[in-house]
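2024-03-11 09:14:02 INFO receiving multi-entity request
2024-03-11 09:14:02 INFO entity count = two
2024-03-11 09:14:03 INFO echoing inputs for audit
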Amino acid sequence: MLKKNKYTLWVVSLSFVLLFIVCIPFVPLILMSFSVHWSWPDLFPSGYDLRAWEYVFLSNTSIWNAVWMTVVIAFVVTFINILLSIPAANAIARFKWKGKAWIELLFYAPLIVPPLITSMGIYLDFLRYGLIGTVTGVILAHIAPTLPYMIRALVISFQTLSFDWENQAATLGANGWQRLRYVVIPHLVPGLIVGCSLSMLVSFSQYIVTLLIGSGKVQTIPVLMFPYISGGDQAIGSVFIMVYTIMTLLSLFFMQFILTFYYRRKGIPL
Amino acid sequence: MNMWQKIKPYVYVLPAVLMLVMLFLGGILQGLLQSVGVYVASSTYSLSFEAYRSVLLSEDFWNSLTYSLTIASTSTIVSMWIGTMMAFATYYLSLRVSGGTKIKSVIRLQQLPLLLPHIAVAYMFFLLFTQSGWISRLSYSLGWIEQIDQFPILVHDPYGWSIIFTYVWKEVPFIFLLVYPVLLRLEPSWMQMARVHGASIRQYFFTIFSLLLPSVLTSGYIVFAFTFTAFEVPYLLGVTYPKHIAVLSYQYYSSGGFDFREEALAVNILLVIITAVLGLLILRSLKKLQWHVRGARW
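2024-03-11 09:21:47 INFO inference complete, emitting structure
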């Protein structure tokens, strides 16, 4: 019994150290966004107000457009990724064929070669087809860096989906669409949620690619806020980063919520 | 029917392959062609390696390369070490403590950095570690320093400390995420067996480490490739000279019209080559390792 307590103590202290390390970066950010005069060496600001928040939300109405733009781009990118990844992941996870290793290499290579490099190379082609400065161009530029995460997440899901289940459904008279709808997709939901979360997170994280391909005309949150965070008023920079972080976390929790909801409805214990 | 069965997987991967060939391979290929002066669209074929010559002869490039490689390898090695230790510690404690909820909350908590974009983390670390930042104020309150300039320069500094801090904070959970599932596949009885035979926890860890090595190396390689070539974090936290290699490339690309465009693309191609060679080396060592591990009937 005593021994058991020793390990529980370890777990508790480990949690506290983690809590500290994970949370401390948020402290100056939150304080700074509400700070009035905060000169060194004061540990806390001498006053608090909403000046920076008012600046960002009232005198700068483009923020809501930027939030909307960022979310729409991420959603469209993720939707395209789903369509591309379901068949691709199926082929990777459940079929044996020649050249699979090479195709897998191609699928995961964008994890290693960053989108800035490929975007610089493809810039002139995009210019020729009129994609520079358009939302379509930015969406296309976000696909390569996000697709590997979706494929990977779905490959893991497909690996545990036996052909027998689909065959059984076929024996019971389900056609191709019904098998996809009632057998395959439900099994993929957890993987889909993970893939969607990662795909959206990576799309949210793009700054330089969006700036280059969107040539400043496609104003996502990172593009809008970058001048403020790379110098200038730190209170305003902090507000932008908080908006950005909250937007990201809300989208990811929304995904998580769908997953939990799905499991509850299916009666699968969490 | 048989024919369809044969071509089925190829049809399935076709859309994704086409998309990546156009947007990804196309980007690399166009970068490669244009870096040697070949412009397919405008039918200009003035093949020259002038851009590579000028990049490889410039001191700026070598300084940037050294700076970026140092930061990337430091961040990677530290993240791999802490991430693996964290995974093993969590696994060890999960065997010792009854009731999984406590351990689950530990795991959930340390996964939070994964959910934040790099740009946000970089700015938080800027506010934390800059000379007038919160750690500096905290050090003053604790009586460690008396003047602001006694606090070390950790942001926009020549060693990239704040860049390394940002990456380690961000990537440790990533390493954890890829290593922990491998630990869960181990038989819990192995550890009891090792303990019965008098092995310490440390000895047990080093014994099973070769089983973890594939996932440690793979995740470490992804972290390295990312930190070596990413733009945003070093742009926010890096020093003016030497510039991080991706920042240098973008500066060539965007400054002075099209004058240094080919240099920028040459830098990019060199980066792709460096990362690819490193990847091949890791792949080869993993293949050797798998022989070794297979011999042990894993």
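2024-03-11 09:21:48 INFO post-check: The mean pLDDT of chain B is 87.
2024-03-11 09:21:48 INFO post-check: The first helix of chain B runs from residue 2 to 35.
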